[in-house]
Every structure is written in structure tokens, then in C-alpha cells.
Fold this protein.
Amino acid sequence: MLRLSLKYRIALILAGFAVITFGLALLLVSTTFRMEEMIASITEKELSAPEAADRVLAAQAASHTQAVRLRIIAVAAIFITAGLSLMLFLVFVYQIVVPLRRLTAEAYREGAPARPGDEVKTLSRRVRVLLHDVDQSHSELERSRETLAQTEKLALVGTLAAGMAHSIRNPFTSVQMRLFSLSRSLELDNAQKEDLEVIAAEIRRIDTIVQNFLEFSRPPKLKMQPVSPSSVVDSAIRLLEHRLKSYDVTVRVNRLRPLPQVSADPEQLKEVLVNIIVNACEAMSRGGSIAIAESAEDHPQLKQVAVIRLRDSGPGIEAAVLANVFHPFFSTKADGTGLGLSISQRIISEHRGRLEVESTAGEGAEFIITLPIGDLEP
């Protein structure tokens, strides 16, 4: 089917309007000629009557005058219509068609499919793409604002955490040394030894919490290097092999091929995976399974990405809790510090990636790690 450009469509419309007007003018002129012929016919029949001669001559003169006026009006209408059509055509060309052609050419340069003669549809598609880009940019801006607010909050909390950690750790170091000295110098029965072991275990737990505070306040510098996230996943599973058995949790890895290399700190990335897997194990008190799916995908902002999805068969996360899982010091566990997932999200953010969670109560939880595939310079 033949398609005409907007310019030619407008030209055809204006030409049709001019033809119709011209036809009406010709009809008007033709009518005047028929009027004169009728008057002439009447004159020939009635000139034989002397009393009607004056009346017929007067009617003939009036008809001739009216015909001349109608001809002048018809000719003027033709010229006025032609002039208006030309003016409208020029206005449409220079005010609408030319800008449309420029915008269409710009769309072609930015990758829109070239379809000459279809400027309006091309621009319509381009506008839809631009609106989609604006929506994505707005969403990205909102996420950036949330990230900035979270970063400022973490910086303040980190400063407080560092001061608290140092204040707690110094006396605790002394307590650990004295406890070790007492355990070596005293003769203790089994019950006393058990009590000392419990005290030592609790001290180690507090020391771990303090260490988490220090890591939260002063995160280690990333040691970036090219690495396949698949190898880090395998390393994390090997590290947790005995713990997985103790929790009666099985891990299944869905991998068609190893993920492409990304620029990452393998130890920090492994810490994130370990943290997510351990949290999943603790949520499944009666055992269960963790499915790990890997894929290389296209992301609207990050372009080519490596995606790791970790889905457990646990009880899931309630909506009220889901909104706070990455907030520092938020935990649903009685003995939890609430720093693990917050630190994990910060590590992934420092890799220019994203850590997200999706869950419905009673249907398990899925953590999604997204890492950009790009510059592999360490």
C-alpha cells in the first residue's frame, strides 16, 4: 500500500479544497450564462408586444449587471481560494512539516527505525520511548534519593557504632584475659568448667557483635578483580557445607553455564552470599531447601548484568517486615544484630550493583543480587 508523507497529504487536502472551490465558482459562472440565455429567449418572444419592450429591456440590463457581479465574485473567489491554499500550505510546511522532518531526522540519528513518509508514526514511537525513559529516570532518581538518605543515616550510625565498639571492646579484652588465666590456674569441677565455657562462648558472641559494629562503621576497602560470580557461589556453598547439614538444608544450583566475569571483590561477595544463606537456614528451623539460579540478563539501567537469585522454602517475610530488612539494627531474631543484610546491601552497592528481596508470607523469600558486566579493570 502506497504511503504518502504528511507534507503530501496536506497538499492533497488543500488541492482538493481548491478544486471544490474552483468547481463552485465555475458553476456560478455557468449559472450566469444560463440566466442571460433565458433573458435573451424571453426578449425574442416578447419584443413583438410594444407594451412589454421596456420591461424586458430593463430586466435584461439588470440580469446582465447581476451576471457581471457574479462573474467578478467567482473570479475573486478563485484567486482568494488559491492564495489561501498557498498560504496554508506554506504555513503547514514551515510550521509543522519542516519541524516534524527535523524531529524525525533526530529520531533516526538516535536509532529509531527509518521509515520515510511516515514521520508522524515515527515520532509517536519516539515519544513513547522518551516517556518510558523519563519514567525510568524518575524511578532511578527516587532510588538515588533513598540511597543517599540511607547512606547519610548509615554514616551517622557508623560513627556511633565505632565509638560504642571501642568502648565495649577494651574492657572485654581484659575480661577475656582474666577468664583465660582463671581457667588455667584454678582446679575446677565439671560444672564449673561448663559455666566457664558458657561465659567464654557468650564473650565470643559479644566480641562478634562488636566486630560487626566495627565492620559496619569502617568497611574494608574492596579488592576488585575479574571474577565469575559462579565461582564465588561454589566457594560459599563449600564453606557452609557442614552448617547446611546441621540445619538439614539442601542447596540446588540452576546453572546452564558459568556467569561471565565481573569486576568484584570475591571475599566480600562471598560474605554477602554466606549471610543470605545463613539467614535462610535460620528461617527454616525444620530444614528445607535453597534454590540458587544464575543468569546473564539485560538491565534497563545497568545494561548487561549477572544475576544471582537465592530462593528458600521458608515461611517468607511479612510485608511489614519486608520494608525494613535492609535497615541497620533491624532484626526479627532475639540474638540478631540487624547488621548482616545492611552490610550486604552496602557491599553490593559498592560493586555498583543491587541487592533486592521479594517475598510473600508463607511462600519463602527470594534475594536477588545484580552485578554489572562491564569494565573488568581492578
